[in-house]
TrEMBL record:
The active site is at D66 (proton acceptor). Zn(2+) 1 binds at H62, H64, H139, D210. Zn(2+) 2 binds at D66, H67, D210, H268. Binds 2 Zn(2+) ions. This is Ribonuclease Z. Its EC number is 3.1.26.11. Transmembrane segments: none annotated. Belongs to the RNase Z family. Coiled coil: none annotated. It catalyses: Endonucleolytic cleavage of RNA, removing extra 3' nucleotides from tRNA precursor, generating 3' termini of tRNAs. A 3'-hydroxy group is left at the tRNA terminus and a 5'-phosphoryl group is left at the trailer molecule. Residues 202-269 form the Metallo-beta-lactamase domain. The keyword tRNA processing applies.
Amino acid sequence: MQITFLGTSSGVPTRSRNVSSFALRLPQRAELWLFDCGEGTQHQLLRSDLKSSQLCRIFITHMHGDHIFGLMGLLASCGLAGNVERIDIYGPSGLNEYLQAASRYSHTHFSYPVKVHAVRPGVIYEDDEFTVSCGLLHHRITAFGYRIAEKDRTGRFDLEKAKALQIPAGRLYGQLKRGETVTLDDGRVINGSELCGPREIGRKISYCTDTVYCDGAVQLAQDADVLIHEATFAHQDADMAFQRLHSTTTMAAQTALAAGAHRLIMTHFSPRYAPGNTLDLQDLLQEARAIFPSTDMAHDFMVYDVPRRREVELTKVGV
């Protein structure tokens, strides 16, 4: 699971930062999932090492322009390129009507299937490897945060040990790899967990923007390997943050701390903290680290590989 930030500014683009978007690359299945799609996102994709031909899912947090103005252009370009098979789009109510109107008035017709899913809190997508859920945040309009959870995997199967036990290859190997208990023809009972390494804990990513501090964000970020959270304002501008229902650096850090997240990556920064101003982004980073030390600050084209955690082998702790 690899995250690439494509836009880390709030409201408007700057010379060094585009507006909101990040991509999640799933190399094991050659898929690309996009989260938010501000104006210019397709240009950012072209400047990155990502392959738009792998794009298959887009998740939109809310209907403000700096999160959706790039969506129609990206979809149209994918159609003209002819290299996308199907795209599923998830977002708030009204997203489908927005895309239909843009398509109608621009006379744009997609050459591939596009399915828009209006989301509600709860699980919105699930397959054999991942579950994606969403929850309400607290913003001026309806806004959703997302949680991507990779399912746990059985540890690596010890093939040599299985051969040494003279277990017949074939169907039984599949059962043992899944941790099942099997009975051999000679009466021996083999516990699959004894032939597998430590269980691989599925990774979890949470994405919360735009929002002021709220319980919904904390719930989405529970035990997340990485929480991507907006930090539009510095702590000294908290009054402005509450008025506009955006987060400060300290709100983002408090969310990560309360949720027991393992890492916080802040994004969606106001252009007011550009170099030369009274406060700059390094000041914002220090504010957050004072509360949650494992904090990083995203920048456009920053790539983050989500590390994998391993569960303690149950047999070693006598469970």
